[in-house]
Design brief:
The protein is of the alpha/beta class. The chain is built from 5 helices and 12 strands. Strands 3-2-5-6-10-12 form a 6-stranded mixed beta sheet. A 4-stranded mixed beta sheet has the order 4-1-9-11, with no helix packed on it. It has a two-stranded antiparallel ribbon with strand order 7-8.
């Protein structure tokens, strides 16, 4: 009887270390609500939006909600409607709390698993695309239950290999 109780915690710890914390606490998919507005702050209904990351591509008509596969890569959103200039957005992927729990408590194995599955990352949950603009949306400044207004791509520092026009485009 004592052998069972001594080995059970060991077996549990080994099994727990082989799973990712965010894999358990987060779904591989995440809902992102997209709304479109004109430059003069009027809703633009019926814009066709395409969101894309390295895990797939999703379509919606704004205002609408898409279920995207989580990824460490940014989500690129392009919205178009006849009579309007296209609206573009780069939605920044950020590590969520499960990733940090993996690093602190799991010794890194869970972090690797969650990184590979994408469950370690989260996008802003509600974005507002402005037609005719290219914006950046970063979850670091997200306010719960409110649409996120993006920051103009020209206002953010660019990598030496990027330009403002390529920043909102999917990278091959």
């Amino acid at each position: 009887m004592k052998i069972i109780f001594r080995t059970s915690p060991l077996v549990f710890l080994i099994a727990a270390s082989l799973t990712g914390c965010a894999t358990i606490t987060k779904d591989a998919n995440q809902s992102v609500q997209i709304e479109t507005y004109s430059k003069d702050n009027q809703p633009v209904s019926g814009a066709k939006c395409v969101a894309q990351n390295d895990r797939g591509q999703w379509n919606t008509s704004a205002p609408g909600t898409i279920s995207v596969h989580r990824s460490g890569e940014n989500l690129i959103v392009n919205c178009e409607k006849d009579g309007e200039q296209p609206g573009k957005g780069t939605v920044i992927s950020r590590a969520n709390g499960g990733m940090f729990g993996n690093i602190v408590f799991g010794g890194g194995i869970g972090a690797i698993i969650d990184h590979n599955k994408g469950t370690a990352y989260t996008y802003p949950s509600w974005i507002r695309i402005i037609m005719g603009e290219t914006l950046i949306f970063d979850r670091k400044v997200e306010v719960e239950n409110q649409p996120m207004a993006g920051v103009p791509a020209s206002a953010t520092p660019l990598k030496s290999t990027e330009t403002a026009s390529t920043q909102a485009q999917p990278q091959p």
